[in-house]
TrEMBL record, chain A:
Family the UniProt entry places it in: Belongs to the ABC transporter superfamily. Spermidine/putrescine importer (TC 3.A.1.11.1) family.
Organism of derivation: Gulbenkiania mobilis
Name the record gives this protein: Spermidine/putrescine import ATP-binding protein PotA
EC number: 7.6.2.11
Lineage start: Bacteria, Pseudomonadati, Pseudomonadota, Betaproteobacteria, Neisseriales
Catalytic activity: ATP + H2O + polyamine-[polyamine-binding protein]Side 1 = ADP + phosphate + polyamineSide 2 + [polyamine-binding protein]Side 1
Keyword list, A-Z: ATP-binding, Cell membrane, Membrane, Nucleotide-binding, Translocase, Transport
Function: Part of the ABC transporter complex PotABCD involved in spermidine/putrescine import. Responsible for energy coupling to the transport system.
From TrEMBL, chain B:
Species: Gulbenkiania indica
Pfam families: BPD_transp_1 (PF00528)
Bilayer topology term: Multi-pass membrane protein
GO cellular component term of the entry, any: plasma membrane
Entry's localization field: Cell membrane
Residue intervals passing through the bilayer: 12-35, 78-103, 115-137, 161-184, 212-238, 266-285
Protein name in UniProt: ABC-type spermidine/putrescine transport system, permease component I
Keywords from the UniProt entry: Cell membrane, Membrane, Transmembrane, Transmembrane helix, Transport
Top-level taxon of origin: Bacteria
GO biological process terms held by the UniProt record: transmembrane transport
Main location: membrane
TrEMBL record, chain C:
Keywords, sorted A to Z: Cell inner membrane, Cell membrane, Membrane, Transmembrane, Transmembrane helix, Transport
Topology within the bilayer: Multi-pass membrane protein
Name the record gives this protein: Spermidine/putrescine transport system permease protein PotC
PANTHER family associated with the record: PUTRESCINE TRANSPORT SYSTEM PERMEASE PROTEIN POTI, SPERMIDINE_PUTRESCINE TRANSPORT SYSTEM PERMEASE PROTEIN POTC
InterPro entries: Bact_Polyamine_Transport, MetI-like, MetI-like_sf
Domain ABC transmembrane type-1: 67-255
Primary role: Required for the activity of the bacterial periplasmic transport system of putrescine and spermidine.
Upper taxonomic lineage: Bacteria, Pseudomonadati, Pseudomonadota, Betaproteobacteria, Neisseriales
Organism for this UniProt entry: Gulbenkiania indica
GO BP, one annotated term: transmembrane transport
CDD domains: TM_PBP2
Family: Belongs to the binding-protein-dependent transport system permease family. CysTW subfamily.
Amino acid sequence: MNGHAYSIEIDQVSKRFGHGSEATLALDTVSLNIRTNEFFTLLGPSGCGKTTLLRMIAGFEEPTSGDIRLDGVSLTGRLPFQRPVNTVFQSYALFPHLTVEENVAFGLEMLGRDRAAVREAVTRMLALVKLSDYARRRPHQLSGGQQQRVALARALAPHPKVLLLDESLSALDLKLRKDMQVELKRLQRETGITFVFVTHDQEEALTMSDRIAVMGGGKLQQVGSPEEIYDRPVNRFVADFIGETSFLTAEARGSALEFGAAGRLAEGALGTTAQGPVALAARPERLRLSEDGGLTGVVSEVVYRGADTLYLVTLADGQNCRVRHTNRLGARERAVTGDRVRIAAEPGAFQLLTGEAGHA
Amino acid sequence: MRDPRTVLRRALLLAPTGLTLFVFMVIPMGLMGWMSVLEPDTYGGVRWHALSLDAYVQFWYERDLDDSLILNTAYMEIFLRSFLLAGFATLATLVLGFPTALYIALQDERTRQRLILLISIPFWTNLLVRTYAWMLLLRNGGLIDSGLGALGLGSGALDVLYTPTAVAIGFVYSFLPFMVLPIYTSLEKMDWRLVEAAFDLGANRWTALRRVVLPMALPGIAAGCLLVFIPALGSYYIPELLGGGKSLMIGNLIQNQFGTARNWPFGAALSFTLLALVLLAMIVYTRRFRQAPGE
Amino acid sequence: MPSIENRLWRFHGVAPTAWLAFVYLYLPIVILVVLSFNANKVATLWTGFSFDWYLRVLENDNILRATRNSLVVATGATVVSTFFATLAALAMASGPFRGKGVMNAMLGLPLLVPEIVTAVASLLFFLALGLELGLTTVLIAHIVFCLPFAYLPIRARLEGLDPRLAEAAADLYASRWQAFRRVTLPLILPGVVSGAMLAFIVSLDDFVITFFVAGAGATTLPVYIFGLIRMGITPEVNAISALLLMVSIAFVVLSYRVGRRPS
């Protein structure tokens, strides 16, 4: 083990494309640290800068400013083939003229490993991704899932310090994607390599990652464990991008939240001790329709979704709020459109959003 | 992107092709322009320091014995005939080529590949030899002549070879693939659901063809017309062989200046004029369709 | 996708016109080839099958010399133009840069300018330089007009190439040269071969430009055939023409097969 706690350090990195008036800032002073042997995910909508960041770690792009370090050593000026980092491309980019085993052997051959070592590694890698029977096939003879596993084996074969995965599961259908998610976690545990995964799929990010960095508009929005990101989003962007959220404004007074005409929630609905007008986010499953709830409103829509039912409620002060209930066998709907209902909240259900004022 | 090594590598890769084309294509054309404004030497060649517009004047006027200029229509007739023949060839190949391209585009994938190969083979095979084949067909006592005779339709001599008609037949034959291929390319890229939409909105086949297919094939049609018209206009051996060696078209006239007439500046002037006309057509085309006609 | 099977897509008169076009294109070729096997001395009167004229062609020293010239020029022009064109295509495929438009225009010139103009310009250029007309001048002229023909299939192949493949090679520790050798080159090779074949046919078939820039000793096959045709229609001309035609056709078909090979 090396002496550095961090595998990758992104230090104040910005990336500008184009020149003059046509320049766009793809990445705006992003700093973050990725720990050794961590499954780290860059999550965000398309155009948020996550792929640009990944390509800069791989060496396909150079930062306009800032520095990227691998195990404490700057990568600036090092070309892709001089970095112990391998990539699983979004479209896999398998060499169409080479067989599966030739693809997997490619990196090791370029590193000048001897024939026997290459053979041994290729056999081990193909066994690892369960493709030993397909060694002599060409990429176009494989299914999407198999191609994906070849791409993985090819990138893992040189045993890089860091493995980069660029939207690598997005081309697969749902069932294959679920299987590959499990597979990827297993591979990461077994190889002990740091994985940096780029995706726009929040569910994928939440299930697989040790930590997630949410990115938006070229900026880093929040870094944390999946629980932190889901339960304690720091701003509207993160709360909106991940999971379902109701955005509300209220007046924090003491430990209570006042919603004007809609009523008030007493005792610790807000996790913090902020005072005055506040912008809030709440997950629908942290709220419930209840006789003893402190807020009043009218159900505007009921959406049945199999495992649960979503109630859209217009509060008495005109704000909209979502409440979700898990469905049980034989249980009736709790309300229908037009019903007057009351809403209660779990302690800490409301998350304070920073960088925004409440009502003016 | 601005990495000096990248720039250097690119320059080195481009240098052989770029220099070859510049030295042996661009400079010669410039030189040709220059030589067209020089005086001819007696036995071919030019007088390098004697500037003269004679070559261009010669096209319009003849110098009489007393040095006065008389309007001479002989060369203009040749130009006019060239334009008419090339224009006819363009029109005829279009009439024949558009349905052919449409027919190919409507086939299934495999048949399309085969038919396109069938169109491409004449595109790449020796034009001189293919022109010669028409001499076999058209001459008196040739296949068409004796065929008509056997049917009792011939009156003895067909008398088509060595006439402008034979040249026109040869043009259409030679340049038909140049029309079909670009039209097919534009039809191939077409979204046929748009035609279905036209049918759905009450257009009959003819209207759908005229209002939907034709406008979308327009870049291909324009490219095809250019690819037929330009080589036809500058054609040399088709009129030479099928038209009977008379100074029938611009190409023959130009060749003659380097053969028996030995008037290089006039030959250069004719070539330069032809080049200017072609470049003009190119510019108009590119302005209108925003792509090179070959693409 | 529309299909001719579907009544909806049957436009009146389209199919007959297309078949007329195909007959028009192929009838003269077929007749020429058939007549080249004619035993009769009168070139267009069929009396019986014979290889005689082909044998006579193979014994004709002038034809053999012209053929040798044609092959030397075509081989030289193909090798040089394909090599140059491959380098150029690699550079042209690498994103936008200053001068790309100029380069494109120059590559288009030999395709768009009428042959007779190129021929006159080349002739005047060589004469002005004081070069003696001969195989060298023919070779230079051929390299020039073969360039775009060699270039286009290679460029098309590069266009269809996923830029991620080169990145993947770099990511897997291949240096620039190794990435080119091991990934790019094998993948564009069909385009290179196809381009070389087209260059070869175009060179072999050229008449006008060669006719202008060839000296007395540098007669190529088409130039020689032109001379024969002007003297009159003979069975010998039929045979040599048919030969040239068949070589061209074989090359085109082969070139298509190679160029269309899926990657």
